[in-house]
Structures are given as structure tokens and as C-alpha cells.
Amino acid sequence: VKVKIPFGNKYLDGIFSVPEKKSTYGVILTHGAGGDMNFPHLVSLAAYLASHGVLCLRFTCKGLNIAYRTKAFKAVVEYLKLSDDYKLSGVFLAGRSMGSRAAASVIRHLSQEDDDDFIQGLVCLSYPLHRPKLQSKLRDEDLLFIRCPVLFVSGSADEMCEKQLLEGVASKMKAPKKIHWIDKANHGMAVKGRMVDDVMEEINAQVFSWLRENIELEHK
């Protein structure tokens, strides 16, 4: 279902992947610095989640300014929260690369403003912890403030997220967190000698099983 999401005096393009049965939880998903919501990994993940009963709203926000991307993500959260078509108990924010930074930033901002439980967790696909070869400057400030569960899915050969550095940041985080390493994958999740679909299947299954665990924990 294609939608236009109000953002200031403009609109963001979005697409809902809707499960057959009514979903109580949803995932909002966005892309990295390049590309848009039709990036193949996002399309694949959205379809997988919807086929397993989780509503997924993915959206496009062009713009390389992280503050702008964060505002856009916040507008999409508000839009879904107030939606009459899909009444959800909670959402997980998810993004690829820069999109996951924006998602982390939104969670930090919203947790400082209100303490409702609409946002259930964060999924970071290829979180860009540092620029290539610039390991001294870590983009970890938002992660250290977050309290909700966080899943990282990163390639062990990601040039923007050195394995030991992410593990070090994770150990300092107050939130419950899990890291799933895709063996030998780079920042774009490409692995020499492995089919793209095979890698996507691994990512999708990891994300879904983590969501299910956290939704079940919520219900206990």
C-alpha cells in the first residue's frame, strides 16, 4: 500500500507491506545515504516480515544531513502512531547504514521527551560506527543513551564498523543488545562466493527471530 507521509510542508513516500492477519506490532524501515526505500535488502526484509505477520512501513528520505533524516523518521513514527488504518501496540525502528543512525537518534530524542512505550526496539543493519579508516571518531553517542532492545546486523568485514569497536560500544550500552555478524560481509552486505539472496535470507531470519523474542518478552 503506497502512502504519502506528511513531513513539514512536504510529503515522504512510503510503502506498507501488510500481513494477512491484523498485526499488533510494526517495523519502520529506511535506507542508507544512497538509494531509497526500494533498496533490495529493504524490499526483501519488508516482504519477509509481512509474510511472518509483522506490518512493515518503509519510507524514502533523501538528504545526507543526519538531523534532517532524524526529523523525517520522527514524522513517520508520529504518522504511524496516529494511524487509524493500522492500530499498533508498538513499533521497532529499523534502518540500513545512515538510516540506522537516524533511527537511533529518534529513539534517543523521543525517550527524552516522553516515556510512552510505543517504540519497542531498534534494528541497525550495517550501522556506520565510523567513516572508513577513521576509527578514532565513533558515532556511538546515541547508542549509549538508548534503553530499549537493540539488534545489530553487521558484516565482519564492514569497513565502516570494525568488529572489535562495535563490540566495545555494545559492552558500554545500557540497553539489552545483540550483535549478529554476517561472516566476511562488507558494508553493503556482499560476501564473496555467496549469493545475495542467501545473505538476505540470513539477515531476514535474524531480524524476525529477534523481533519475535522481544515481542514475546513484552507479553510475559
From TrEMBL:
Pfam families listed in its UniProt record: Abhydrolase_11 (PF20408)
Span of domain KANL3/Tex30 alpha/beta hydrolase-like: 27-198
InterPro entries membership: AB_hydrolase_fold, KANL3/Tex30_Abhydrolase, NSL3/Tex30
SUPFAM superfamilies: alpha/beta-Hydrolases
Entry protein name: TEX30 protein
UniProt organism field: Himantopus himantopus
Encoding gene (name): Tex30
